[in-house]
Amino acid sequence: MSGLGDPISRRLVVTCHPLGMAGGFDPDPLLTQHWGVHILGYDRPGYAASDPWPEGEAPSVARWADDVGTAVESDLREAAEKAPAAYRDTIGVLGWGGGGAFAIALAARLGARVDRLVIVETPSPRRLASLAVAERDDPAIEIGDDPATLRRRQHAIDAADEQGAAGRIADARALLPRDWAAGMRGIDAETLLVHRRDPLSSGEADSRWFRRHLRHARAVLTNSDRPIIDHWHRVLEHLAPDHGEIPERLR
User: Fold this and answer.
1) Domain count of the fold of the chain
2) Fewer CB in a 10 Å sphere around the end CB: N or C, the chain?
3) pLDDT for 139-161, tens place per residue?
4) Is 249 domain-assigned?
């Protein structure tokens, strides 16, 4: 598990990392630091120092969502008991690239506890399953050539490889059935979709697919070649609208 932002913030956001990349990547550390939000990332089995899937148990998006959802509910109950003045019973969820499938499953699992959801560059279920089975790098992690950004990305990629290809293989097995999409229509969270406009990325088609299946979704199509970074302000604004003051130079 990794944490970003303000650990004592009243607003919690859970992030789900792309394929082939562990959690902990910060798209814009300066902006995140000033936003007034606590961001937690749960590494999936096989990534970084996470435990592998139990012997004999098939990797499952729904099972991962249930495990993380149970942990989040426990943390929220503890916060309500120990710090009721700072307690909020709703959270935001962010899925980036292939992590969007896990974010959607988590939002469905937690129900009304998730009031905001953001999906950035997640392919439709069929395309995502093909990508995962091929064990290729998630296209979402192609984020330009800024040296500082690339260093942060490489750190997350290196962390993902601590157990070799275990995480990628588990993701492929979990995503192949495409059953994670079954509960999408039951999600009540206000949802923001961010995809590339570039036709080579199939972003527009993916965006249309998600808009058809998520009841409260609005879409942003961008010409940016690094949407998670260039739209990080928009993402945070949607996930944590009650943020603290942001210096004008960061806007």
Assistant:
1) 1
2) C
3) 888 888 899 999 999 999 999 89
4) no
Residue 251: inside a domain: no
Cα 88 to Cα 10, 126, 240: the distances in Å are: 6, 36, 12
Burial class for 56, CB neighbours closer than 10 Å (0-12, 13-18, 19+): exposed
Question: Which of 125-129, 134-138, 199-203: highest mean pLDDT?
Answer: 125-129
Domain that holds residue 39: 2-244
232-237 contacts at long range (C-beta below 8 A, 24 or more positions apart)? 232/27, 232/28, 232/31, 232/32, 233/28, 233/31, 234/192, 234/194, 235/27, 235/94, 235/118, 235/120, 235/192, 235/194, 236/31, 236/32, 236/35, 236/37
Its pTM stands at: 0.93
Q: How confident is the model at residue 124 (pLDDT cuts 50, 70, 90)?
A: very high
Q: Which structure tokens are listed for 153?
A: 């990305």
Classify residue 145: in a domain, yes or no: yes
What pLDDT score does 244 carry?
56
Rounded Cα distance between 163 and 47, Å, is 6
The secondary structure of residue 101, as a DSSP letter, is: H
Distance from C-alpha of 17 to C-alpha of 141, rounded to nearest angstrom: 10
For residue 227, give the CATH number of its domain. 3.40.50.1820
DSSP secondary structure letter of residue 75: H
Q: Contact at 8 Å (CB) between 27 and 4?
A: no
DSSP bridge partners of 220 = 194
- Indicate if the alpha-carbon torsion angle 75, 78, 80, 84 is positive or negative: negative
Q: Which residue has the higher pLDDT, 186 or 83?
A: 186
pLDDT tens-digit readout, 166-189 = 999 999 999 999 999 998 999 999
